[in-house]
Specification:
The complex is a heterodimer of chains A (316) and B (327).
Chain A (H helix, E strand, L loop, with lengths): L1 H21 L2 H42 L18 H29 L2 H5 L5 H33 L7 H31 L3 H24 L20 H10 L4 H12 L15 H21 L11
Helix pairs in contact in A: 1-3, 1-5, 2-3, 2-5, 3-5, 3-6, 3-7, 3-9, 5-6, 5-10, 6-7, 6-9, 6-10, 7-8, 9-10
Chain B lengths: L1 H20 L1 H41 L19 H28 L2 H5 L6 H35 L5 H31 L3 H26 L9 H5 L3 H8 L3 H12 L2 H12 L11 H7 L1 H20 L11
The chains are: A mainly alpha (316), B mainly alpha (327).
């Protein structure tokens, strides 16, 4: 009874926060763009796979005429799950940006509406507010990922040539759980700087800069992946040159290279990992994501809990 | 004439002074410089590995008493080291353009000074031209700094002094980068000037950036059949280049659609021009400059057309009194 009463403000805050961000047009725009790209990812996978198959059949004609040995069809060597390989890229691009905006808006909408001083007058601890905002973020990200999972599940059901067995469905579910975890890192970053920054613009730009560093700069240092190659799910898993430098940077900075960690897990779960790829990071990729989500989540929750309840809007 | 130009210069000088006080623009420019230096250093390390591999293979052949001339000598083009740098300019340079454009409008809306300016004896075009002039000057300064540092880094890493033609190539790519960043400046400025809510303008500009800088080239790249199989589909099937071209002729419609998606992005035009001029793409390495420029004129025209279209949009629309304040 006492516990239920203590949790009541948190439940109210979660519901209020979710209904507020649901009305934000920018959140809706980015969520819509993400969901459109989820559909595009499935189409791209299907289209590219069909084209590679058609190229193989044309090549077979040529090789037969030349009396060459016919190699196996590369399409038959790929798992149906690899159809969704572009999802890894879209989650790390538009998904991460949408998560930053959701996390940011969860705090910014209250600050701009001037409700912080009002919340400060209520019989509620700062940590309750932090916990409520973190829970709202988890629910919002879970909803985004659930929509994407629903669309991809429907894709597999309508494409009979790409059938999944029990293990395949389990891997797909694990991929979405990992994607949710990855997006939470960026959602918490948005929340953290939404609460800590004095200016709304800076509160948005710092997480975007962190995202740029994780997506384009760190993979270059750890694996010699150029920024544009990082956009292609297959090219991004090229082997690093056999050098002591990449051995050391891969081992030491690999655990912080979250975009790379997410790509590695995605490639393993969606069966498009090149057989020669070696993960050099000091800790497993999944551990990196878990530690990052827990760490940034704790910092973000504390940042919200410690907000100045006497101030309303941002300074600039 | 002086009466026409003086207010433009006054606005431009004031805007440059304001922008230099903006820590985030300085921080993002520093971030671009740092990312570029990282890209160059990493490219140099990767090159060193390639050279060591070559030397090892050659020594191996000599040790076996075989003819080492069967391995062709590697050709080294120092400007090729700039690949990562150019890609960072594509991504971060566009963001810096958006931020400078956003700030140019936001600084007036945030301080409610835009409404004040329109009451002064200054035409709308003079105000906008002053802002665009300031933006162009800030972007150019940042890019000149970045390209000079990159050029010095290439000389330091490769030990080869760049010849006048190499410097000319760098200057052409820098001009293209200026035009490219200017297009994003105009995007940031237009959205921040017209959006009902300022932060929404930034998000809208970022969404456009994401769509045209990252997603459109990504879709084009992903649809390339040779990028679908690790190492390339033709390499895996062991099919020589002339036969590849012959086989791909049957997929011309697919290739047209794929290319159409890619060229919808200004980033791809900038990349194609830069990679050709700097010889980053193998087919252009070591080739004379003029034929490359002739072939890539369309990419330069596209960049110019995009910037001009956005400028036209900016100057054609009247400032809306309802959009002059922060909210």
């Amino acid at each position: 009874m006492g516990n239920a009463a203590a949790n009541a403000p948190i439940r109210l805050l979660v519901a209020q926060s979710l209904s507020t961000i649901a009305r934000e047009r920018t959140v809706a725009l980015l969520a819509l763009l993400f969901l459109v790209l989820v559909v595009v990812a499935a189409y791209l996978g299907w289209s590219a796979t069909s084209t590679v198959n058609a190229i193989y059949l044309r090549s077979v004609d040529y090789m037969t005429a030349q009396g060459q040995t016919i190699p196996s069809n590369p399409v038959l060597d790929t798992s149906p799950l690899a159809l969704l390989r572009n999802m890894a890229t879209y989650v790390s691009l538009i998904g991460a940006l949408a998560a930053i905006v959701v996390g940011h808006q969860l705090i910014a909408s209250d600050r701009k509406a001037g409700t912080m001083p009002l919340l400060g007058t209520r019989p509620m601890r700062g940590i309750d507010l932090g916990t409520a905002k973190a829970l709202a973020l988890v629910i919002a990200i879970a909803a985004l990922v659930a929509f994407a999972a629903f669309i991809n599940t429907a894709t597999f059901l309508v494409l009979p040539e790409f059938r999944l067995d029990g293990a395949g469905w389990t891997k797909l579910a694990a991929f979405y759980a990992t994607s949710g975890l990855y997006l939470l890192v960026f959602g918490f970053l948005g929340m953290w700087f939404g609460a800590a920054a004095k200016s709304e613009t800076v509160g948005l730009l710092i997480p975007v800069t962190v995202w740029l560093t994780l997506t384009f700069v760190l993979p270059q240092i750890t694996s010699n992946i150029n920024p544009v190659a990082a956009l292609n799910p297959v090219s991004a898993l090229a082997d690093a040159p056999a050098s002591a430098f990449f051995q050391v940077t891969g081992w030491a900075l690999g655990p912080f290279s979250l975009a790379e960690a997410y790509r590695v897990i995605s490639a393993q779960l969606l069966d498009f990992m090149p057989p020669t790829y070696v993960d050099r990071a000091a800790i497993p990729a999944a551990a990196s994501l878990l530690i990052a989500a827990a760490g940034v989540g704790t910092i973000a929750t504390r940042a919200v809990a410690r907000m100045d309840m006497t101030k309303g809007d941002y300074d600039a | 004439m002086r009466n026409l130009v003086q207010p433009v210069l006054t606005i431009a000088v004031k805007d440059i002074r304001d922008a230099l006080k903006d820590r985030f623009i300085i921080l993002m420019t520093a971030f671009l410089l740092l990312a570029s230096l990282v890209a160059l250093a990493v490219a140099a390390i990767a090159l060193k590995v390639d050279v060591a591999t070559y030397a090892e293979a050659k020594a191996g052949l000599i040790a076996l008493g075989k003819d080492a001339s069967t391995i062709p000598d590697p050709a080294f083009y120092p400007l090729k080291l700039l690949r990562g740098f150019v890609e960072h300019v594509e991504i971060i340079g566009a963001i810096i353009g958006i931020l400078i454009g956003y700030r140019a409008a936001a600084s007036e809306r945030g301080r409610q000074t835009l409404a004040l300016i329109v009451t002064r004896p200054i035409s709308q075009w003079q105000f906008l031209a002053g802002k665009v002039l300031a933006g162009t000057a800030i972007i150019s300064s940042g890019l000149i700094l970045a390209f000079v540092i990159a050029g010095i880094a290439v000389i330091a890493i490769s030990g080869i002094v760049l010849n006048p033609e190499d410097i000319g190539r760098l200057a052409i790519v820098m001009s293209a980068a200026g035009l490219y960043a200017l297009a994003f400046f105009l995007l940031g400025f237009v959205t921040a000037l017209w959006a009902k809510k300022l932060p929404n303008a930034l998000l809208l500009a970022f969404t456009v950036w994401l769509s045209f800088v990252l997603i459109a080239p990504q879709i084009g790249d992903t649809l390339d059949p040779d990028n679908q199989v690790a190492g390339g589909v033709f390499k895996q099937l062991q099919i020589a280049k002339p036969q590849q071209v012959e086989i791909l002729q049957s997929f011309s419609t697919y290739e047209t659609i794929r290319n159409g998606i890619e060229v919808a992005s200004p980033t791809k035009h900038f990349e194609r021009l830069s990679f050709a001029v700097l010889g980053i793409k193998d087919t252009y390495a070591g080739q004379p400059l003029m034929p490359i420029l002739a072939e890539k004129t369309s990419d330069m025209i596209w960049l110019l057309a995009i910037a001009l279209a956005l400028a036209l949009l900016l100057f054609a629309r009247r400032l809306d009194p309802n959009r002059l304040s922060k909210e």
